[in-house]
Write a structure and sequence with these properties.
This protein has about 425 residues and is of the alpha+beta class. It contains ten helices and 14 strands. It is about 35% helix and about 45% strand.
Length: about 425
């Protein structure tokens, strides 16, 4: 085939594809143009609930152009934006709705959701108060107000709101749920026992870590006291730890840790460990932190670990990206952990989790007391977890992890580790 014939052949094929594509696009656009706003809205809802929200929004924009005062379409458009974390854009659309009808019930209810999803309960409460002035007996606004007051740790006010709701409709199914949630949240202390078992495919024996801790919530933040006992390869050791999560300012809280094991347990724990971190709430459901950890294994082996996090809340999901950077006079290492949680039960205590990590990281188990060295070992890990409350007072935690880790005495060789964690907390 000559070059001219080849060019003619490819030109004809390209033209045919272009004609087919253009015709299909023209037909699709013609079909859309023939649909009214109600039909576009119906199709957009199907797409949105099937996780095709970009396509849904394209149809909703067409529907709003055809019916600019159709509030339900604009509210649903705002809802898809909020689902994808675009809370400010959702608020802008709601302001358009309110300019047309200031007391649109669906828009007010959704506006409360937007503020609660964006961790802005104070703003949500303002909307609740405004709505209830206009609709004092509306059960949905009373429910939202009770939930918002609970989010603000104003449990007594939330119970008063529930009492008002009971006077209106004692059989409302949300009342016992919120009461139980408030009762559970108001429990200020608990005792937890957990056991973690590590098994290796070669070289090492099993490793057991038993933890007993007492936690107490205060208005200044949570405080946790912890006793750790480790048994590995015939050796035993104890460590005492204290954690605190002080509230610094609105949207800012801290993490403070100190642990002591002493020289008798220094082959299994650092003699001293400390941690300090500050967490900041950011716009659009983000949170960030920065801080560090300090490990002292004696014999001049001090290790400083710099860390931070970037966290994001999306609907019932939470995602966290946390790097670790370690530097001492021996080496420099980096590691990265990614964690996600799905809060499927509607409470902060009920979730399924997944975790993955990679990179060089100093581990307490990598300390060799015979030569006073801390090994920086390459490792990759993956884990899943589950936490479930049973009633108000009991909480069960289960975790499974797999780790592929470099061997301290044979660098370049790897050992596989399987870990199981089971914990039970009793709150009172």
């Amino acid at each position: 085939m000559t070059n001219q014939r080849k060019n003619n052949f490819f030109w004809k094929i390209s033209t045919a594809f272009f004609v087919i594509f253009f015709s299909q696009t023209l037909i699709s656009q013609t079909v859309l143009d023939s649909l009214d706003s109600e039909e576009l809205f119906a199709r957009a809802r199907v797409l949105a609930f099937n996780s095709q929200r970009d396509s849904a929004r394209q149809l909703l924009i067409l529907a709003m152009q055809e019916s600019p005062t159709y509030a339900d379409i604009r509210i649903f458009y705002a809802r898809t934006l909020a689902w994808d974390g675009m809370r400010n854009e959702a608020r802008k659309e709601l302001r358009t709705v309110f300019s047309q009808k200031p007391f649109n019930i669906e828009a007010l209810l959704f506006a409360i959701d937007v503020e609660l999803w964006d961790k802005q309960p104070t703003e949500a409460l303002k909307i609740c108060v405004t709505a209830l002035r206009k609709f004092p007996n509306n059960e949905e606004f009373l429910i939202q107000k009770a939930k918002t007051l609970q989010a603000l740790n104003r449990e007594e006010d939330a119970l008063v709101t529930l009492s008002i709701l009971e006077d209106i409709n004692r059989s409302n199914p949300e009342i016992p749920k919120i009461r139980e949630s408030i009762k559970s949240h108001s429990i200020m202390q608990g005792i937890e026992v957990s056991e973690k078992y590590d098994g290796y495919n070669k070289y090492y024996g099993s490793n057991h870590l038993l933890t007993i801790q007492y936690n107490r919530s205060t208005y200044l933040g949570a405080i946790i006291g912890r006793l750790n006992y480790r048994n590995t390869q015939g050796r035993d050791g104890f460590q005492v730890e204290v954690d605190a999560y002080p509230l610094i300012l609105n949207g800012i809280y801290g993490y403070v840790n100190y642990g002591f094991a002493g020289s008798a347990s220094s082959s299994l724990f650092p003699e001293h460990r400390a941690g300090l971190e500050v967490f900041f709430k950011l716009p659009s459901s983000f949170e960030s932190s920065f801080g560090g950890r300090y490990l002292n294994f004696g014999l001049g082996n001090d290790i400083a670990i710099y860390t931070g996090s970037l966290e994001y809340y999306y609907e019932d999901f939470w995602f966290s990206l946390r790097p670790y950077i370690t530097s001492n006079n021996i080496s420099f290492s980096r590691s990265l952990n990614i964690t996600s949680r799905w809060y499927y039960g509607g409470t902060a205590e009920e979730y399924a989790s997944m975790r993955a990590g990679t990179g060089f990281s100093p581990d307490e188990r990598n300390y060799d007391p015979s030569n006073g060295k801390v090994y920086f070992l390459n490792a990759q890990s993956f884990g899943v977890g589950w936490q479930k409350p049973f009633g108000i007072y009991s909480l069960l935690t289960i975790g499974l992890d797999y780790t592929k880790q470099e061997v301290a005495f044979k660098l370049g060789d790897y050992v596989q580790m399987y870990s199981v964690l089971v914990g039970y907390r009793y709150k009172f």
